[in-house]
Amino acid sequence: MSIFTQEFNILELYTDQMNIYADTGNSTILKKRMELYSLKANITHYNIGDVFPTKVDIVVSGGGQDSSQMEIIEDLLSVKNHLKLLALDSTPMLVVCGMYQLFGNYFQTSTGKKVDGLGIFDAYTIAQDKRLIGNVVANSEAFGKLVGYENHSGQTILGQRATPLAEQIELGFGNDASSKTEGIIYKNTIGTYLHGPVFAKNPKLADYLINCAVTKRMGYEVQLTDDRITKLDKIVEKARKVAEQLQQ
Ligand code: GLN
């Protein structure tokens, strides 16, 4: 079975509501990078009331205002088991800000409304008066320097069993106003506060999810390389440098 005859399925959750700060670009970047690696990929947009797809290789979802999160929460909890099983089965997933918050144990909005989350991440989020806004530079042992943009009132507190995506914040806030951590990773499910879309400035994250999906499908590790990607990432590096300098 050749990897290049397979078709990989990217699932984007709640495209209609969870789509702020260009986060829907993450699924587009995944598809484009997979095509540059000569892989076939398609994107399914899942929205409220849709039938949850059975064949899923990568899941992505973006951020949204409190009101958007309240709009989707009932439907999200109705597909909780699908998403928990995918996470437990180490399916690669990336959820940003508002959806990151809803993948935790609970989320309390700026008006004090408390809703259950999916409980995939050992974390909870409570909105605070101070909004955490601006560019972020965070250092991750696993993924190196991560750059992006944040805008959230929710502050996420990681539980004892949780592993942050980035252990040290160089600039900005990340999870909350004091811990100096950013995001979370559980098996192959990543939560992050970085908008942008995050994959545009952090191709290592995109390639991590792609490699997880390909390895999971093929049953063995595959080293993906392509000159076009190498050229593209040289340009990305320049954008990252600008992003980092802007923040000093
Ligand atoms: N509404 C949530 C908050 O303000 C998430 C915002 C977002 O996704 N950028 O914390």
Could you give a quick summary of the protein structure above?
The chain has 248 residues and is an alpha/beta fold. The chain contains 7 helices and 11 strands. The model has no long low-confidence stretch (mean pLDDT 95).
Q: Over the alpha carbons, how many angstroms does the gyration radius reach?
A: 17 Å
Number of helices: 7
Through-space gap between termini: 50 Å
Q: Helicity range of the residues?
A: 25-40%
Mean pLDDT: 95
Shape: globular
CATH homologous superfamily descriptor: Class I glutamine amidotransferase (GATase) domain
Structural class, by secondary structure, is: alpha/beta
CATH class: Alpha Beta
Task: Compute the number of strand runs.
Answer: 11
Which residues form runs of ≥5 with pLDDT under 50? none
Portion of residues in beta strands equals 25-35%
Q: Quick one: biggest sheet?
A: 6 strands, mixed
Bound molecules: glutamine
* CATH-defined topology: Rossmann fold
Order of helices and strands: EHEEHHEHEEEEEEEHHH
Order of neighbouring strands in the sheet with most strands: 2-1-3-4-11-10
Assigned CATH architecture:
3-Layer(aba) Sandwich
Tally of domains? 1
